[in-house]
Amino acid sequence: MPVPDSPDRGSLRRWFRLLPVVPSILLLVLFMLAPVAWSFYASFTDAALSGRAALNPQWIGLDNYVRMLTDSVFPLSAWLTVVFVGASAILGQNALGLVIALLMTKSGGATASLVGTAVVAAWVLPEIVAAFAAYAYFSQDGTLNQLLGMFGVHGANWLYAFPLAAIILANVWRGTAFSMLVYRAALSQVPRDVSEAALMDGARGWQRLAFITLPIIRGSIATNLMLITLQTLAVFTLIWVMTAGGPSNASTTLPVLAYQEAFKLGDIGYGTAIASVLILIGMVFGTVYVRLFRRVNP
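RESULT FIELD:
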């Protein structure tokens, strides 16, 4: 008759099972949690890049956060961030990725491969390369105006006249591939017999999409929304290369504002306070999407 393990031995075995993930946990704490904790701490100080505050920052409490309430640029940046995330991630990348995935599923073969390669090409580019490519496309003497000139249309200085629209389109171009790949995988799991049965019952294409396909892949939709929202909240390089937040703060999102305050103006305390607010916004979005994900996957 086998002798049952003692509680101490069972506890020891559980600890041994955790050993392989200990290095990952340590790296996560060192390179992610520690900087976030320092950022929150620095936001309550007058830390700076130079001067007395650089050597000996003082605790100033909520002064940096109170300053946001009177800063005319911060509310504008918060609003631009919401518009940028909503237009380029939730509407742009998510919807366009789903449409492309549906078209690729319908077409199949060489057409699907060609479209998939073209869409993924922008995604695999290094971010700085994609940013310069977008800048070259939307600049006054760039590709877009050259193409318009071929048809006798006089182009505008898009990065000056419509800076937010330009960076939204550039981010959609760069990030749509991720949503497309997620939805391609999800659509491949939709049972063909269910869709064929609906077709035999007289359901039209949009009815099959609305009442069969989308409910089946709703878990993938929630996951994709969460990931692309958090990715878009952190977009900095694309905006900085294309517009640097200008003109007149017309494209200054919160990551750009945090960088300007912390590294251009040298106010580390205020810059990290803005970054801390951005982290909190990301946590709110993450919480909402996790609740949504649990609801659609009971």
